[in-house]
Amino acid sequence: MKNNETFIGKVRSVTGNTLAIELDENIHSTIPIIEGVLYRIGQIGSFVKIPIGYIDLYGVVTQAGSDAIPPNLIDQENRKGSRWIKVVLMGERNGEKFERGVVQFPIADDEVHLVIKNDLELIYGGVDKGKSIVVGQVSASESLSARLDIDRLINRHCAILGSTGSGKSNVVSVLLEAIATKENFKKSRILLIDPHGEYGSILKEFSQIYKIGADTLKGEKELAIPYWALPFKEFMKSFPGKLNEKQEEYIREKVLQKKIESSKKLIPIPKEEAITADSPIPFSLFQLWFDLIDIEQKTFNDKDLTEEALIEQGDPVILKANKYSQASTNNTKPYSNNRAAQGILSFLNLMRNRLLDQRFKFLYQLNDLSPDLEGKIKGDLDTLIQDWIGTENPISILDLSSVPSEIMGSVSGSLLSIIYEFLYWGQNLDVGGRQTPILFVLEEAHNYLKAGEDSISSRIVQKIAKEGRKYGSGLLLITQRPSELDETVLSQCGSVIALRMTNSNDRGHIKSAVEDSLSDLVELLPSLRTGEGLIMGECVKLPMRTKFNKARESNSTDPLVSKQWVEKTIDSNNYKKVIENWRNNKF
């Protein structure tokens, strides 16, 4: 076997699944050419083969040089100047089938061989094409397609991590397009939370886009998120101002009362005992505001507080409160409503301003999803969710680029909560997650999944990460700052696609997210090319260094300064057009 051109050395030490291998001193070249293909011996992330009878063991090189020498051998005289590599065993070939995991282990002096193209085809080529997608080429052999197991990718969750400019958006686009264009995936459902509006152009052929200020001529739909479907705490967070616990509970009771009253107008009528302030039941927010502020401002002409000192009738439709005579300060009429008032007048004034703010129309002015003053509604939540995840297009893009930053985290978390709750309660039906799974794609996840933050977005994503696979909900997280991401969520990602990453703190968090035996491979990340990544975990049989396909041109592509600055003429009329776009919140 030593005469074989693939022979590179021998096993010298076995510790669990980690091998110390001494390269043979008679190797003619560390860059051999085998069957016309150039290979490099001892490259971090490359593979080796250890033949044991009818079985071949395969391992990945995680370390090279003197650091790979076992401590008990490092001082021996005959080891000086020798070349070593450390290898982690990953799987074995039995017959013509490769399987992850190792049953037998090598012993000292077993031969080690270079893995060549045929071996790579055995390792990576055995994936069922019917349940896998192609995202690029294996870097070690660019004629070999990089395939991902779609079941394990989605069911076990995945994170795409990389520095700015490393090609994250390209990888996301390539991956989602591969799913969307898969011929036998006719019921695929993907929900993409896009905080910057960068995927609409690149994935427009396969997606339905929902955004604030939608351009209907481009096929976009207006994004509407009904306030009455939000959990109570997130509903309150949509308004500025702070309340103490007693005041918040007071409003909770009023909201519950409104939901119970308006529930009587639904068909079928829900059970009253099942209704809470969190229940997705429509009610009139304008009427709620009118009733609350009326209690705060009401004055009376008698001490028994029975005769109201009303001057002018208000109108909840236009958020105009009833006008009363100003309360006296010397214990004469008109008397204030101290028995019922809660001291929330300033909060209610801020609430009114928010309801009139056109930037928040997507929450409070909802057309068919806006209840009338009695709580009656033309549409309902089922039609909205069907529109989001039941369309013919496999991808639904919720473009949040125009959502005010102060409520971005709350809105994104509430969206996920609404849809996940729908999938949970529909688990026994064909529209639920168990029978029609869904993939949640969260771009810029670190913005609303910060470590240690008790927000609805963190709570719901943790819930999906821990329980989602039981109900057909998969996660795909994309972030450039894994160190800011909640570690609980990151640790639940069974697959990691790591692109170029130069920050040592971020690499440390990636190490904690992958299995211990592969942590040394993370040190490869600073040297990866743009558009190249290391795929590790459940969705591949072995760690795969991959050159990803190139997606279509997208809005995330950086402008080329050297090209753009060459153009000398600028249309001065466009300055006016920009101000018009700015004022109308529309491009």
Structure in words:
The protein folds into three domains: 7-126, no CATH class; 144-217 and 389-555, Rossmann fold, CATH 3.40.50.300; 232-361, no CATH class. The protein has a twelve-stranded mixed beta sheet with strand order 11-10-25-24-23-12-22-21-13-20-14-15. A six-stranded antiparallel barrel has the order 1-2-7-6-5-9. With 587 residues, it is α/β, with parallel strands linked by helices. The radius of gyration is 31 Å and the shape is elongated. The chain contains 15 helices and 25 strands.
The outline comes out as: elongated
- Major beta sheet, strand line-up: 11-10-25-24-23-12-22-21-13-20-14-15
Low-confidence stretches: none
Number of helices: 15
The CATH superfamily of the largest domain turns out to be P-loop containing nucleotide triphosphate hydrolases
CATH architecture of the largest domain: 3-Layer(aba) Sandwich
Largest sheet: 12 strands, mixed
Averaging pLDDT over every residue, what do you get?
Answer: 85
Briefly, what CATH class of the largest domain? Alpha Beta
The protein's oligomeric status is: single chain
CATH topology of the largest domain: Rossmann fold
Global structural class: alpha/beta
User: How many distinct folded domains?
Assistant: 3
% residues in beta strands? 15-25%
Spatial gap, N to C terminus: 68 Å
Quick description:
With 587 residues, this protein is of the alpha/beta class. 26% of the residues lie in helices and 22% in strands.
Topology:
Elements: E1 7-15, E2 18-23, E3 33-34, E4 37-38, E5 47-52, E6 55-64, E7 84-94, E8 97-100, E9 111-114, H1 117-124, E10 132-138, E11 141-149, H2 150-155, E12 158-161, H3 168-180, E13 190-194, E14 207-211, E15 221-222, H4 232-237, H5 245-263, H6 285-297, E16 299-300, E17 310-312, E18 323-324, E19 335-336, H7 345-356, H8 361-364, H9 381-389, E20 395-399, H10 408-425, E21 438-442, H11 456-467, E22 473-479, H12 487-491, E23 495-498, H13 504-513, E24 532-537, E25 544-548, H14 561-564, H15 573-584
Parallel strand pairs: 12-22, 12-23, 13-20, 13-21, 14-15, 14-20, 21-22
Antiparallel strand pairs: 1-2, 1-9, 2-7, 3-4, 5-6, 5-9, 6-7, 7-8, 10-11, 10-25, 16-19, 17-18, 23-24, 24-25
Helix pairs in contact: 6-7, 10-11
